[in-house]
Amino acid sequence: MNYSLPELPYPYEALEPHYSEQMLRLHHGAHHKAYVDGLNKAETRLQEARKEGDFSLVKHWERELAFHGSGHMLHTLFWENMSPQGGGSPEGPAAKQIEKDLEGFEAFKKQFSAAAAALEGSGWVLLCWHKRFHRLMILTSEKHQNLTLWGAEPLLVLDMWEHAYYLQYHNKKADFIEAWWNLVNWDDVNRKLEEAY
Ligand code: MN
Q: What is the reported pTM?
């Protein structure tokens, strides 16, 4: 149960000018790292509790497990979802499925951006494939783990915590969202969708 910080699939400066090197270094090296550490700690404390048969703090550590585990997972997807060669509109399975379930790419993009801009406080916007419902859905989360719809597999995620944009974009949330579309790695989204089907 030892989780580790994954390496980025590109150098820190690779997403410039849309995502600054300084912001990416901090976001990955400090923020994501803290979620990995928090997840390891929660797993360790729960293992100790099982060994000792002392579950007096189980509520606390279960919450920590959900928060840090979701933080670790979503950041891992977030890095994979971006590429210096990203942007544009999807082709292949993601394009077809978006057409079928979400009224096409332009409507999808508008809803996704609007949901991101409408978030209050810290959260994420997520394009998910729901295996049982057999359709795409755009969901949002508060923090990393609240408002989850069980069974929904995230394909494309956007971090809307202030630490994700404030250093470069300050209070201009809409500018960050617009710039981020230039980084979206649709090949990765297609790969994730094909794995999730
Ligand atoms: Mn983040």
A: 0.97
